[in-house]
C-alpha cells in the first residue's frame, strides 16, 4: 500500500509540473468610469457638460496615453441628440474620435534626425498615417525600439510581420556595413551605411505607391557600430522603426466599425458615429465598435448604470476574432559585448549585390529561458524511481 501511495504521489507531481508548464492566456477587462442615473439624459447632465459626456485617456485606460510626451489621441462621447431618452442613444449620439499626434521615437536623438513622428491610435493599436497630416490612410506600427541588436554578416534579424534586415557585408576598415531589407524573404531595398565620424548612420527606406502615396518612409535603422575581424564581421544597431506598409489600409466613408458606421475624415481627425439608434440593453454587454463595449447593469427601468470596457488577452498568444494580423513578433534585445578585432580581411564591399546570394532563414533574436517545466519533470521522474526502489 505504501508503495502504491508513493508511486501515485510522484505521478501526481509529474502531472502537476507538466500542466503548469503549459502557457495559459487570460482575458482581462479594462474598464472606464461607472455612470449611474435615472436615464441617459440624466447621466449626461450629471457627468458631462454642454449636452455631452466625453471620455478620454485620463478616464479610460484603454485609450492611448503617452505619459512621457503627455499625448492622447482618442475620445468617446455621448451626446444629448434628438432621440436620446431612457436607455436609448439617438442617431449620431455616440462619437468616437482619434486624432494624429506627434510622439517621440523610442530612440530619441534629435541631432541625428530621430525626434518625433506622426501617430494615431485605433482599435487599441498604434497606426502611422501614410500622409502625416491626414488620417485616412494608415499602416500599423510594427516596431519602435531603442534596444541594441548585433547581427553578423550573413545573419538576418527578424523584425516581425515577415520583415527582416540582413548584414550582407562589412568593409575591410570596419567603417561601413551593407544592409538588405526584405519582406517575406523578397528583396525590398539595400544600402551601404557608414559609421565614420560626421556621416549619417541612419538608413531610411522610402517606397512609392503605398496607398497611392509616394516617398513614404517605411523603415528607419540607426547603425551604431561596425566591427571587422578575421572570424566575424558584426554590425551593431541601436534604433529601429518600422511600419507594416504591405498591409496599409485606406479608410472610406462607407466603412463600418460595429455599430459605429458613419465615418468622416477631417484632416488629421477620424470621426466615427452611429447612424442608427443605440440601445443600452440592461443586464447585457453591448458592443459599440472599435473593440469597445458598454456593460449595462441589471437594474429596474427607473435606473440606468453602465461603464465602457475593452478586453485584452495576456499571458499567451493574443487571439483577435476581428483581425488576423495581430501576431507581432518583435526582436528581442540580443546585445552582446564585442571586442574589436585586430585582424582585417582584404575583401572590399561592393555597392550592391553582383551575384545572387543564398537566402538564409531569418534568425529571430531569442531571449527565451530554459524549460523549467521539463527540469522539474525529470526531478519528479527521479522521485518515482527512488520511492519505488526504496519500497522494494
UniProtKB/TrEMBL annotation:
Q: Where, if anywhere, are coiled coils annotated?
A: none
List where the protein spans the membrane. Answer: 371-388
Chain segments carrying region Disordered: 316-371
One of the record's GO cellular component terms: S-layer
Please list the residue ranges annotated as the S-layer family duplication domain: 49-298
Pfam family for this entry, one: PGF-CTERM
Q: Does the keyword Manganese feature in the UniProt annotation?
A: no
Boundaries of each PGF-CTERM archaeal protein-sorting signal domain copy? 369-390
Name of the molecule in the record: Uncharacterized protein
Determine the domain of life of the protein's source.
Archaea
Q: Where is the composition biased (Acidic residues)?
A: 318-350
- Key word Transferase present in the record? no
Q: What Gene3D superfamilies has UniProt attached to this entry?
A: 2.60.40.4190, 2.60.98.40
Amino acid at each position: 500500500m505504501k508503495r502504491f501511495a508513493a508511486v501515485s504521489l510522484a505521478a501526481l507531481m509529474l502531472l502537476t509540473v507538466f500542466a503548469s508548464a503549459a502557457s495559459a492566456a487570460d482575458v482581462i477587462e479594462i474598464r472606464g468610469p461607472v455612470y449611474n442615473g435615472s436615464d441617459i439624459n440624466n447621466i449626461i447632465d450629471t457627468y458631462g457638460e454642454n449636452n455631452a459626456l466625453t471620455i478620454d485617456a485620463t478616464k479610460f485606460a484603454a485609450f492611448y496615453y503617452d505619459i512621457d510626451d503627455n499625448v492622447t489621441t482618442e475620445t468617446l462621447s455621448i451626446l444629448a441628440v434628438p432621440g436620446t431618452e431612457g436607455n436609448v442613444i439617438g442617431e449620431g449620439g455616440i462619437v468616437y474620435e482619434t486624432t494624429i499626434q506627434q510622439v517621440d521615437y523610442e530612440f530619441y536623438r534629435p541631432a541625428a534626425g530621430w525626434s518625433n513622428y506622426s501617430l494615431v491610435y485605433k482599435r487599441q493599436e498604434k497606426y502611422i498615417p501614410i500622409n502625416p497630416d491626414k488620417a485616412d490612410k494608415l499602416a500599423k506600427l510594427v516596431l519602435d525600439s531603442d534596444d541594441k541588436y548585433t547581427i553578423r554578416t550573413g545573419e538576418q534579424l527578424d523584425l516581425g510581420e515577415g520583415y527582416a534586415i540582413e548584414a550582407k557585408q562589412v568593409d575591410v576598415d570596419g567603417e561601413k556595413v551593407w544592409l538588405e531589407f526584405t519582406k517575406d524573404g523578397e528583396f525590398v531595398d539595400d544600402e551601404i551605411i557608414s559609421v565614420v565620424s560626421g556621416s549619417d548612420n541612419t538608413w531610411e527606406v522610402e517606397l512609392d505607391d503605398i496607398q497611392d502615396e509616394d516617398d513614404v518612409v517605411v523603415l528607419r535603422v540607426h547603425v551604431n557600430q561596425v566591427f571587422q575581424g578575421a572570424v566575424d564581421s558584426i554590425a551593431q544597431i541601436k534604433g529601429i522603426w518600422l511600419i507594416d506598409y504591405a498591409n496599409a489600409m485606406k479608410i472610406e466613408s462607407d466603412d463600418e466599425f460595429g455599430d459605429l458606421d458613419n465615418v468622416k475624415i477631417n484632416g488629421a481627425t477620424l470621426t466615427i458615429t452611429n447612424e442608427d439608434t443605440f440601445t443600452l440593453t440592461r443586464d447585457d454587454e453591448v458592443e459599440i465598435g472599435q473593440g469597445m463595449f458598454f456593460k449595462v447593469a441589471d437594474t429596474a427601468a427607473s435606473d440606468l448604470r453602465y461603464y465602457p470596457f475593452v478586453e485584452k488577452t495576456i499571458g499567451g498568444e493574443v487571439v483577435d476574432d476581428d483581425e488576423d494580423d495581430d501576431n507581432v513578433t518583435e526582436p528581442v534585445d540580443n546585445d552582446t559585448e564585442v571586442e574589436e578585432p585586430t585582424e582585417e580581411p582584404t575583401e572590399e564591399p561592393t555597392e550592391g549585390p553582383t551575384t545572387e546570394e543564398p537566402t538564409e532563414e531569418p534568425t529571430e533574436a531569442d531571449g527565451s529561458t530554459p524549460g523549467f517545466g521539463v527540469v522539474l519533470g525529470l526531478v519528479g521522474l527521479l522521485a518515482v524511481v527512488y520511492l519505488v526502489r526504496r519500497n522494494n
